[in-house]
Every structure is written in structure tokens, then in C-alpha cells.
Specification:
It is built from two helices and seven strands; from the N terminus they run E-E-H-E-E-E-E-H-E. It is an alpha+beta fold. The chain has a domain of 93 residues: Alpha-Beta Complex (Aldehyde Oxidoreductase, domain 3), CATH 3.90.1170.10. A four-stranded antiparallel β-sheet has the order 3-6-1-7, with helices on one face. A three-stranded antiparallel β-sheet has the order 2-5-4. Helix 1 runs antiparallel to helix 2. It is elongated and about 55 Å long. The N and C termini lie far apart (34 Å).
């Protein structure tokens, strides 16, 4: 699964305000021919990214090329069940990336267009944000 090799601090603030607005960077297809684009804002975990990647790879029978345009660089913490209030922030639990509407999540090329679109459609079911499939205007 994806996660940073090292970070400056073990824990981070939640910072929900970053999900306001639309994505300006990373909002156009750069590498592939067909892509998944986020329609709503949200947080995507490293496990969800890996699950979507595996779904795409299986659907095209490991053909074509896949680009993952997001990286989980924000850590979320969690405390154990039935832990009393106080005693500080919880331990690092999972890595997420914050996604805004318009952000390209995955790109693909090198296979039949209908097959790629079907593979990306299957991958959108694994993601917690609403997505749409877009293709390169040639």
C-alpha cells in the first residue's frame, strides 16, 4: 500500500477546510487516454486506492498502463475501543489523500477503449467519492 517513507511529524491536524472548492491542479488528463475524475470531495485511504488499482489490473488482464495520480500523504489517528477521554492524541492508523471535485484519480492507456472504460467503471465502485469516466479529446 502507498504511504510516505518518512514524515516530519507523526501526527497531523484534521484540516477539513481543505476540501472546499474545486481542483485546479491535476484536473486534466496528462498521461493516458481514459481517466477517473472525482465529482465530489472526500478522503480516499491507501487501501481504497490499492483496491481500485487491483480491480483495474484484473479487468484488463494486466494489459495497458495505469497511472495513479493521487498519493496518500496525510495520516489519520485512532484510539482503541473503550479508551477513556484524555491521555492525548491516538496512534497513527491510516494514510489518506484529500480529493476535491475535478481531480483526476487514475489514468489508463494501451488497451481497447471500451475495455479500459469498463475497468475504470468497476474501480469507481471501490472509491468513497462520486466519480465519472472521461476520455482524452483527440
Amino acid at each position: 500500500m502507498l504511504q510516505p517513507k518518512r514524515t516530519k511529524f507523526r501526527r497531523q491536524h484534521r484540516a477539513r477546510s481543505q476540501s472546499k472548492g474545486v481542483a485546479t491542479r491535476g484536473s486534466e488528463i496528462s498521461f493516458g487516454e481514459v481517466a477517473i475524475k472525482a465529482v465530489t470531495a472526500g478522503e480516499i485511504t491507501a487501501r481504497q486506492i490499492e483496491s481500485a488499482r487491483r480491480t483495474i489490473a484484473r479487468a484488463v488482464k494486466r494489459g495497458g498502463k495505469i497511472w495513479i495520480r493521487i498519493f496518500p500523504d496525510k495520516v489519520l489517528t485512532a484510539k482503541g475501543a473503550e479508551v477513556p477521554m484524555g491521555s492525548g492524541k491516538g496512534a497513527p492508523d491510516k494514510w489518506v489523500t484529500q480529493v476535491r471535485p475535478g481531480k483526476i484519480l487514475f489514468e489508463m492507456s494501451g488497451a481497447e477503449t471500451t475495455l479500459m472504460q469498463e475497468a475504470l467503471k468497476l474501480a469507481t465502485y471501490k472509491l468513497p467519492v462520486k466519480c465519472k469516466i472521461i476520455s482524452q479529446d483527440i
